[in-house]
């Protein structure tokens, strides 16, 4: 598989999952909600920001799962990590992404 290829799967429950590797595994994960938007756009943009925040983790492979809920989208962001890592610190970095209104707007396409 080329470096820029990602697996984008549509699950039976209506979720969309973006992952580098299959099968999907969450060694760390944070869940959050964002306004209604394209699930694929949210998954790809969040994956980019998550990679930037966690690129120091050796063997990190991001996974983003997005599904529709009343009033928006529910997102599970995290992924697999080869080896030992500080889970609480890594999950705090992901959680901080959900708290940044500018990032959420970029993921959802709100405001340009």
How would you describe this protein?
With 112 residues, the chain is α+β, with helices and mostly antiparallel strands. It has one domain. The protein is 32% helix and 29% strand. The chain is built from 3 helices and 5 strands; from the N terminus they run E-E-E-H-E-E-H-H. It has helices at residues 39-54, 87-98, 101-108, and strands at 7-10, 16-19, 28-34, 61-69, 72-80. Strands 1-2-4-5-3 form a 5-stranded antiparallel beta sheet, covered by helices on one side. Helix 1 packs across helix 2 and helix 1 (39-54) crosses helix 3. The N and C termini lie far apart (33 Å). The model has no long low-confidence stretch (mean pLDDT 94).
């Amino acid at each position: 598989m080329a470096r820029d290829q990602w697996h984008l799967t549509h699950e039976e429950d209506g979720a969309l999952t973006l992952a580098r590797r299959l099968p999907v595994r969450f060694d760390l994960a944070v869940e959050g909600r964002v306004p209604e938007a394209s699930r694929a756009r949210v998954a790809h943009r969040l994956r980019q920001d998550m990679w930037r925040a966690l690129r120091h983790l050796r063997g990190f492979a991001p996974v983003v799962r997005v599904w529709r809920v009343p009033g928006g989208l529910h997102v599970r962001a995290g992924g697999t990590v080869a080896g030992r890592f500080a889970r609480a610190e890594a999950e705090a970095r992901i959680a901080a992404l959900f708290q940044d209104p500018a990032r959420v707007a970029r993921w959802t396409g709100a405001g340009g």
